[in-house]
Every structure is written in structure tokens, then in C-alpha cells.
Design goal:
261 residues, alpha/beta, Rossmann fold, seven-stranded mixed beta sheet, four-stranded mixed beta sheet, 8 helices, 16 strands, 27% helix, 28% strand
Length: 261
């Protein structure tokens, strides 16, 4: 698998450039600086954070591999059979966005609450010209409001994609899926570091209306009771995700079994 690294300057000032229009303006001489490595893999452009070189998603991409390839495969194959939109939360710097964007026939709603992660994901969306991506700099929760997100690991390093909703840290906006009024939702994929149940509670109306497949990282088994109560069944696992399907949808079940077995 070939890939190309395009070295960026040591510190890149994010501003309006000749090739890409960004959504940040700076007053006077103030700068927001994010150091990254510009990388091209399989024709997709990524902006890999130097502050998170220790994180597995970053390590994999720099070694020329996609992180959690089973998730990429699952989304691609599922969306070949079922047309519609997808929710993707836990976006980090956007390593899954290009493939997810090209897999879905509808829109890809992507969420990243950490500002510096969001900036790199936004560069990814813009540089790959992904017109069906709705990327929001906010957390998924059970309502519209503000939360704290902790971006620092115990050793003092940036947590990258493992940043967690907490009682301390940076203030981030939160939104619930129901506010988006998505009419054609077929898949929800959540990897939000323990905040999955709250995000699902904020999607109850949408889930009952659209009955999407739900793929979640639920390491502490917090979501099973909630999903069973709304008549969902555990259809199997892929590395990092448990796949839940509405109990009445046999076509979903058959497809999931073929993908996880």
C-alpha cells in the first residue's frame, strides 16, 4: 500500500490560502498554531497531528495503514446495500472521513469537540472536496448546551482521539442527534470514549423514526439495557465496535451477519 508524506512547515498558520478556503480569521498578529504532517494515502489527503504521534490512529496512518480497517470495511459494505445518511462521532483528525463520505449515498454527519482536532478534520474535508460531509465542532450529548472535554492524558500528553467528556478541561458545545432532523439515517457509529449512552439518549426520536443500525464502542457495557428497551438486538462485533440492529429488520440482520461472521 503506497502513501506519500508531504512535509509541512514546523508551524502552520491556518489562514485563507490560495488552494483552500478556511473558516478562521485572525485579528492583528495573533495566531492559532497546529503542527501537522500532510499525508496522502490511497489518494486521500490527511492532516496528521504532531501533538498526537503516540496515538494508534496516527501511528497506523504514518505507517501507511488505516486504523481499524474492519470499521472502514463494515461501513463501505453496509452502505452498498442500504442507502441514506450516517452519523460518525469521535472524528479526531478525520482519518475515517474520506472513506465514510464516499461510502454513504446521503450525508455524513461528523462530530469532533476538540478544536485542534476539528481544524485538522476540516482541512481533510476541504482538501478532499467532500461535499456531503456536515462536520460540527461539538460533542454529541442529550441536548444543546456546553460540556467540558479533557484533552490531557495522565502523563501530560495530548489525548488526541481519546479525549473525554469530564468535569474539567476546555468548554465545548454539545448537540443531540434529534435536533438535526435527519430523514434518511441508516447508520450511527459512535466512538466517544464512554459518552455513548448519553449520545444515544439524545437520539431517541430519530432512532424510533428511522431505526438505523447502531455501531458503538461500549467497553463498559453501558448501552445494552437502553438498546434492548427500544427493541434492538446485538448482531455481533467487529474490533472496537458492537453492532446493534432493530429487532424487526431482517434485511439488516442478514447483512450484518454476513459482515461480522
Amino acid at each position: 500500500m503506497g502513501y506519500e508524506i508531504i512535509r509541512s512547515p514546523k508551524a502552520k498558520r491556518l489562514e485563507t490560502a490560495s488552494r483552500t478556503q478556511h473558516d478562521i480569521e485572525f485579528m492583528q498578529d495573533e495566531q492559532f498554531v497546529v503542527e501537522f504532517i500532510h499525508l496522502i494515502l490511497n489518494g486521500n489527503k490527511y492532516f496528521v497531528p504532531k501533538y498526537a504521534l503516540h496515538r494508534p490512529a496516527v501511528k497506523n496512518l504514518l505507517n501507511g495503514n488505516l486504523y481499524e480497517p474492519d470499521t472502514h470495511y463494515f461501513v463501505r459494505e453496509f452502505c452498498k446495500s442500504f442507502k441514506g445518511s450516517m452519523v460518525h462521532a469521535g472524528t479526531f483528525f478525520g482519518d475515517m472521513i474520506p472513506n465514510f463520505s464516499r461510502s454513504v449515498s446521503g450525508s455524513l454527519y461528523a462530530f469532533e469537540p476538540v478544536f485542534e482536532n476539528y481544524i485538522l478534520a476540516k482541512l481533510c474535508v476541504d482538501s478532499n472536496n467532500l461535499k456531503n460531509v456536515v462536520l460540527l465542532n461539538c460533542a454529541l450529548s442529550d441536548g444543546l448546551g456546553n460540556l467540558y472535554i479533557n484533552t490531557i492524558e495522565g502523563c501530560g500528553r495530548h489525548a488526541g482521539g481519546a479525549s473525554t467528556i469530564s468535569d474539567k478541561g476546555a468548554i465545548c458545545a454539545s448537540i443531540n442527534i434529534d435536533l438535526l432532523n435527519i430523514e434518511d439515517l441508516v447508520l450511527i457509529q459512535l466512538d466517544v470514549e464512554g459518552h455513548e449512552l448519553i449520545a444515544l439518549k439524545g437520539a431517541q426520536e430519530t432512532i424510533q423514526k428511522s431505526r438505523p443500525v447502531i455501531a458503538i464502542e461500549d467497553n463498559n457495557d453501558n448501552c445494552a439495557d437502553f438498546l434492548c428497551n427500544i427493541k434492538y438486538e446485538n448482531a455481533g462485533n467487529i474490533p472496537g465496535l458492537t453492532i446493534w440492529v432493530p429487532s424487526e429488520n431482517n434485511k439488516y440482520k442478514e447483512k450484518i451477519v454476513s459482515l461480522v461472521s
